[in-house]
Design a protein that fits this description.
It is built from 21 helices and 21 strands. The radius of gyration is 35 Å and the shape is elongated. Helix 6 (195-219) runs antiparallel to helix 13 (413-443), helix 7 (224-236) packs antiparallel against helix 8 and helix 11 crosses helix 13 (413-443). The strands form four sheets. Strands 10, 11, 12, 13, 14, 15, 16, 17, 18, 19 and 20 form an eleven-stranded mixed sheet that branches. The chain has a six-stranded mixed sheet with strand order 4-3-5-2-1-6. A two-stranded antiparallel ribbon has the order 7-8. It has 789 residues and is α+β, with helices and mostly antiparallel strands.
């Protein structure tokens, strides 16, 4: 072996030859650098993920004001009263806080220099911009307060967040949901992910990043045929075998180094525009997209090093002689299969011990390493399988098919290098689809809500600033809202029966049960009633409960005095004597999915004691016209006019876990990036092959070959390797998906729809690559291409 100085000299010679090879050499180097740059840019984006998450968490933790579980702090010179407000506008979350200073020097939230004047708000830049557009006109009606300023970056999770702070002098300490603040900020810990969600995240990262890394390695091998001729010339002037390999490695290292520099440029140029886009409801600041220094250095060093090692590895069985390169001989050395099975053996050795890990936290690194090796097995086995399949393809068929088959039989390594990335991506995606389907089944549950009976539910909390004291007043604020077709309101409160055990001395724990007050039509939505008339009182029969009573049996309260209202101070609660004759009712699930198992009181039977407590709630079942535009948004506007604490819930037949929804958004965003990269990689590889074969193409045209025939030939040359890769990837992806489901002890389900989607996307990528390669193909198919100097 040579000294490091000799290595450096030979590698440098290869780099100089690549730059001095004229137009052809520069074009080849540029194509290789472009391929590497695309992969490096994506890897740098992945390396920036810790910074993106840390930035978001730092800002959201810094503005956190929901200090639950502790004692209420005393009023002071810096304290403020805070009322949280949440809303939704066209499926986008809108949140904010109404504040009231209690002293001369109130605390201010991050990103705000001073509290706005009373009755005004400060808003995020995205909310300000939305207010100024016709699309935000309905939202502006919901928050009509004058805008006094803009929230800075320190107070927002992302540039597109819709957030505000407002000052509201009418806030009082005893209002529902109002809290006193003396500081902002907390350290969030969060609940750990469940095993299936944690495994899903691991597989997403492995499946999305492995194809990128493989393409970076494959891109360094573009231009193989031109390189072979140049290496033969180097041997002709006296270079030995190892020097020839080092010279070849020099060109690859140069192209990879240029690709790294270009990829860094792509990355930093592209992140400037990151704030303008929002993927899956997630927006990030450009300053947060900063790769971790260790990962940045690893990428910068690893990519050129991988190029050097890949070149030396590719030349291990290539004999470079002064008269040519022995690479295209008919009697090729049969590929050995034993070492190609090693990644699968290693992956199984790591993954199999994790089966049944639901009961305890499994090792994330072990799972990731095992999945990497299993997916790597696709790339190592694909060439071995392809050799045997291509050799058996018949020589008959259309001319385009014969040209494609012969080309693949003579030289298919360049095609397989690009297809390997597609196959690994497909295998990982199919496994993801199976794991995703299982995760969706676990994290998406029936909501118990009846969307046929009502489409929305509102809830009003009466207070000093929300003067709603009856169902009619609650409905008055909603009636007339565009799209509202029906309203049914009931008042909910709770009662306590001292001495719930029925003893004369009132001993034992009190029995607590719900009291719902409304007209007969509304009460029939809450329970199954016999004949109902105003003045009746019903008690839900405990025997009719399908899930067990959530409260105490209310039938024991017949003829007894109960304390009405919530809270711990019984001395301020009014007393109501329950009628001795209670009509029976059967439990029924209301449209919101709730069960009612207390007393149902018609409005004529409700004395003043049941309508006085302010801690009651008014629930309204709202019917919406599905054909009315923005009916839900108009309803939210009407609810906000009643009071900022009025809650609006749009009913849905399913509930999706929020953590699962976030992972799903991340998967879709990452898959979109990888699919773009795969398509570009195939296009760059196809263009490079066409450029190397321009004289062959020109010769075929000179002999009368049609352009359509050559176009179909290019399609078959791309489609056959991709089809084989998908076949192998589908088999391994299904096996890997089944194995992963066994790890988290979930029933194995084959997501055939997901397999079909992946196959369809791959077919679409092949078609688009073929269409994009037709213009340069037609330009190369000219007799002038036979000219050679």
């Amino acid at each position: 072996m040579s000294s490091p100085r000799r290595w450096a000299a030979d590698v440098g010679l290869g780099a100089r030859l690549a730059l001095s090879g004229g137009r052809e050499g520069l074009l080849r180097t540029a194509l290789t650098a472009l391929g590497v740059a695309l992969g490096v840019a994506v890897l740098l984006l992945a390396a920036s993920l810790p910074g993106i998450l840390d930035g978001r968490h730092h800002r959201t933790d810094g503005r956190d004001d929901l200090h639950l579980g502790g004692e209420t702090p005393p009023r002071g010179d810096t304290s403020v009263l805070m009322l949280p407000v949440t809303s939704v506008y066209h499926d986008r979350s809108v949140a904010g806080r109404f504040l009231k200073p209690e002293g001369a020097h109130p605390i201010v939230p991050p990103g705000v220099t001073a509290l706005p004047p009373d009755g005004s708000i400060v808003v995020s830049p995205a909310l300000r911009d939305l207010f100024a557009t016709p699309e935000g006109a309905l939202l502006r009606e919901r928050f009509p307060q004058p805008i006094a300023g803009v929230i800075g970056k320190e107070g927002l999770s992302g540039p597109n967040e819709l957030y505000f702070y407002g000052t509201r002098d009418a806030l009082t300490e005893d209002e529902p949901d109002v809290m006193r603040l003396t500081y902002y900020g907390s350290r969030s810990t969060g609940d750990p992910l469940s095993p299936i969600l944690l495994l899903l995240v691991v597989v997403i990262f492995v499946a999305l990043l492995m194809p990128v890394a493989m393409f970076v390695a494959a891109a360094t091998r573009f231009g193989g045929e031109q390189r072979d001729r140049r290496l033969a010339a180097v041997r002709l002037v006296g270079a030995d075998t190892w020097m020839t390999r080092r010279v070849a490695a020099g060109e690859a290292v140069l192209s990879a180094a240029l690709g790294v520099v270009l990829g860094i440029g792509f990355f930093y140029a592209g992140r400037v525009f990151a704030e303008r886009f929002e993927l899956a409801s997630i927006s990030v600041y450009a300053s947060d997209i900063d790769p971790a220094p260790a990962l940045f250095l690893a990428i910068v060093v690893a990519v050129p090093l991988a190029a050097l090692l890949m070149t030396l590895f590719a030349l291990r069985r290539v004999v470079v002689e002064p008269l040519g390169v022995v690479r295209k001989a008919a009697a090729r050395t049969r590929r050995r299969v034993w070492w190609r099975l090693v990644p699968w053996a290693g992956g199984l050795a790591l993954v199999l011990p994790l089966i049944g890990a639901r009961a305890h936290r499994f090792d994330v690194w072990q799972a990731a390493s095992g999945i990497v090796l299993l997916l790597l097995g696709v790339a190592t086995m694909l060439p071995w399988i392809f050799d045997r399949l291509v050799a058996r393809l018949g020589s008959g068929g259309p001319v385009a098919w014969q040209i494609a088959v012969r080309r693949l039989q003579l030289s298919h390594d360049s095609a397989l290098r690009a297809v390997n990335a597609v196959a690994v991506a497909a295998a990982g995606t199919i496994a993801l689809q199976m794991l995703f389907a299982a995760a969706e089944a676990e994290n998406t549950t029936a909501s118990r809500q009846n969307t046929a009976e009502a489409q929305a539910v509102t809830m009003v909390k009466p207070s000093a600033s929300v003067p709603v004291r009856s169902a009619a007043q609650a409905e008055a604020g909603l009636r007339g809202s565009p799209g509202v077709t029906s309203l049914h309101t009931y008042r909910q409160t709770f009662a306590a029966l001292p001495g719930g055990d029925g003893t004369a001395d009132g001993g034992g724990d009190p029995r607590i049960f719900e009291i719902a007050i409304g007209d007969c039509e509304t009460l029939r939505i809450l329970a199954e009633l016999p004949a109902c008339a105003d003045g009746d009182v019903f008690a839900v029969d405990p025997a009719s409960s399908q899930r067990g009573m959530s409260g105490d049996d209310a039938t024991v309260a017949a003829g007894r005095d109960v304390l009405v209202g919530a809270g711990e101070d019984d001395s301020v609660k009014p007393t109501w004597r329950v009628p001795r004759q209670l009509k029976p009712a059967r439990e029924r699930r209301d449209p919101y999915g709730s069960d009612h198992d207390g007393l149902l009181v018609t409005t004529g039977a409700a004395p003043k004691a049941l309508t006085e407590p302010l801690d009651a709630r008014y629930y309204t079942f709202v019917g919406l016209d599905p054909g009315a535009p923005d009916a839900a948004e108009h309803l939210r506007n009407a609810a906000m006019r009643i009071g900022p604490t009025t809650d609006v819930s749009i009913l849905s037949s399913t509930d999706v876990d929020s953590t699962f929804a976030s992972i799903r958004r991340g998967l879709f965003a990452g898959a979109a990036v990888v699919l773009v990269l795969v398509g570009l990689s195939l296009l760059v590889g196809t263009l490079e092959q066409l450029r190397e074969r321009r004289r062959t193409l020109a010769a075929l045209v000179a002999f009368g070959t049609r352009r359509g025939t050559m176009a179909w030939s290019i399609l078959w040359q791309t489609a056959v390797p991709v089809a084989l890769g998908l076949l192998v990837a589908s088999a391994l992806g299904l096996a890997l998906g089944a194995l992963l489901l066994r790890i988290v002890v979930v029933q194995v389900r084959v997501d055939w729809a997901g397999v079909g989607v992946v196959s369809g996307i791959a077919a679409g990528v092949v078609l688009l690559v073929t269409l994009a390669s037709l213009p340069p193909l037609f330009r190369l198919m000219r007799p002038e291409g036979l000219r050679f100097e």
